[in-house]
Amino acid sequence: MEIMLLRAKAYSRHLAFTELNDPSLLREKLLSLLKKCPSTKTVQQIHTQMLINFIQKPNFLLIRIIDLKDFNYASLLFHQISRPNEYAFNVMIRGLTTAWQKYSHSLKLYYQMKRLGLKPDNFTYPFVFISCANLLALNHGVSVHSSVFKIGLDEDDHVSHSLITMYARCGKLDSARKVFDEIRERDLVSWNSMISGYSKMGYAKEAVELFGRMREEEFLPDEITLVSVLGSCGDLGDLVLGKWVEGFVVKNKMDLNFYMGSALIDMYGKCGALVSARQVFDAMVNKDVVTWNAMITAYAQNGLSNEAIMLFNRMKYAGVNPDKITLIGVLSACASIGALDLGKWVDKYASQRGLRHDIFVATALIDMHAKCGSIDDALKVFEDMPVTNEVSWNAMISALAFNGRAHEALLLFERMSKEGGAARPNDVTFIGVLSACVHAGLVDEGRRLFDLMSSSFGLIPKSEHYSCMVDLYARAGHLSEAWDFVERMPEKVDEIVLGALLGACQKQKNTDVSQRVMQLLPEIESSNSGNYVISSKIFANLKMWDDSAKMRALMREKGVSKTPGCSWIGIDDPKQSNWK
Asked: Is 70 exceeded by the pLDDT of residue 245?
């Protein structure tokens, strides 16, 4: 504090307070000026005069410093207060939570407050619960809730709303709903807290149902309500309700700002209504990076990769700087159409902006390079990652597997098992390594890995894993073992697996398994002419003419016709974007 005082004295010469001899007038003048201070520098000037004139108003200073978001200065001042009262603690806890997002500091200050015998109140608890929510500190949240209940603050509106948020963020939606249901007189904030909690945690159906109840009780939704509901509509594919929300916005002349516009675009994108999404996008006068991201992502996720890339170019020409969400959407589009040149440009851009080490951007880069056949570049991105997770490991393992580098994929799986830390092999990992075995014809290794799923990792094989094993055995000519896996599949076998198995039967001239397959195929994919043709050929090759004829007759009976073959080449793509 002494150092700060010496520095601040240098500023104080700019202030002329000597004419105020009356201490009360001086205090009023200083406190009045304090409210108008535009910067930390001017606050220090006022602070110096207060120290010189023995004016003790640290709480007033603390509030202004927090408004200016100067954490170091606020911390220094707070710790210089010999006996901070409840008000000082509340101001500091609020600042730590809202101004600086230092949630662990906020929680520590709450416990310090209690140790000093001070009593937290309804101004303290909401910020403590918000800190618990952001730290996912459920145990602390439950403990603080118990304290709230004991002193009778559980019915306070602000406390209840923050409690709902805390429980929802920590995944305890049942506890959040219990708090909500116990609120005697709900206001709009109450409804928004619970609907938002459901929506953000992926409970889309519950969010929409609660919104329905809210409308029945004649509460008028605001922007916060509608944005949460739009998120849930997108997750559910509920285009009807989504359109109702847009109609409500138009009817009530609500501002189509970044927040609302992006939510509408995202909802329409998830519902596959790209024309409606683009209409909202084009109607927005001002667009921020989130708005552009919503539209680019909508195109990329719906397979309209050229449109995503063209919009990305427009975004750059509009002077909007891409962020990591933009890059992920564009990289997904590049991966879909094999736009390696643009993908490399994005890679370079990410490196220049320090985004290449972001775990999500890096994983998207791995996927893009791999799908464009640049597997060594994908490996370089992976090896350069400072932090990895299951998704990044799985992306690299699958990239190696599907690019014919099966043995490297298996070696990387062993590395993941030993070096992955918290990133342990999961269902997706095993799809990758089993696919590697399929492409390399490693039957014994595939069998070992399939057994390893449950024995060493406690994973229950899913249909995708059984499909890999069927494919592995079929390609190796072990048709009986392949059929055994078909019968063991936990879910109904799909037409792709059976079609592959039928093709293997043709090569091996195996009528026994092919007949079993053909008994299942009509139930699953009765209109695929290829299956009937293959079966007919199997019987014909074995000179079983009657059975071959029956397959052709069955095709006619079911009205199935053979699709004529065709091929095409691309000479030029007028939609290919020109980027710099």
From this structure: yes
Residues 275 and 361 in one domain: no
Please check whether residues 228 and 303 belong to one and the same domain: no
Contacts of 165 (CB under 8 A, 6+ apart): 129, 130, 133, 176, 193, 196, 197
Residue 160: predicted pLDDT: 97
- Residue whose token pair is 């730590």: 96
Q: Which residues contact 50 (CB under 8 A, 6 or more apart)?
A: 30, 56, 57, 61
Inform me whether the pLDDT recorded for 21 exceeds 70.
Answer: no
Give residue-wise pLDDT tens across range 91-150: 999 999 999 999 999 999 999 999 999 999 999 999 999 999 999 999 999 999 999 999
User: Rounded to an integer, what distance in angstroms lies between the CA atom of residue 188 and that of residue 214?
Assistant: 9
| Total tally of structural domains belonging to the chain | 3
Q: Which domain holds residue 280?
A: 196-285
203 and 276 share one domain:
yes
| Same-domain check for residues 316 and 366 | yes
C-alpha distances in angstroms, 460 versus 389, 426, 446, 455, 465? Answer: 21, 10, 16, 10, 10
Distance of CA 99 to the CA centre of its chain: 24
Q: Is residue 143 part of a domain?
A: no
What confidence score (pLDDT) does residue 270 get? 96
Q: What is the mean pLDDT of residues 6-32?
A: 57
Residue that has been written with the tokens 């990652």 in this structure: 385
Letter string b/e over residues 76-95, b meaning 16 or more CB atoms within 10 A of that residue's CB: ebbeebeebeeebbbbbbbb
Q: Of 235, 268, 285, which residue is a domain's last?
A: 285
Q: Are 308 and 296 in contact (CB under 8 A)?
A: yes
For residue 20, what are the contacts with CB-CB under 8 A and spacing of at least 6? 26, 29
Distance, CA of 122 to CA of 163 (rounded, Å): 12
Is 320 domain-assigned? yes
Angle at 86 between CA 82 and CA 90, to 5 degrees: 110
Shared-domain flag, residues 299 and 365: yes
Same domain? For 267 and 249 the reply is: yes
Half-sphere exposure of 323 (CA within 13 A, CB side): 8
Query: What confidence category does residue 534 fall into, taking pLDDT thresholds of 50, 70 and 90?
Result: low
Q: Are 207 and 228 in contact (CB under 8 A)?
A: yes
Q: Would you say 420 and 412 are in contact if contact means Cβ atoms under 8 Å apart?
A: no
Residues 201 and 277 in one domain: yes
Quote the CA–CA distance of 29 and 294 in Å, as a whole number: 50
Supply the pTM of this predicted model.
Answer: 0.80
Q: Convert the pLDDT of each residue in 370-402 to its tens digit.
A: 999 999 999 999 999 999 999 999 999 999 999
Please give the pLDDT value at position 222.
97
Let me know if residue 549 belongs to a domain: yes
* Structure-block tokens of residue 117: 């015998």
Which position has the higher pLDDT, 35 or 217? 217
- Structure confidence at residue 271 (pLDDT): 97
Clarify whether residues 249 and 308 are in a common domain: no
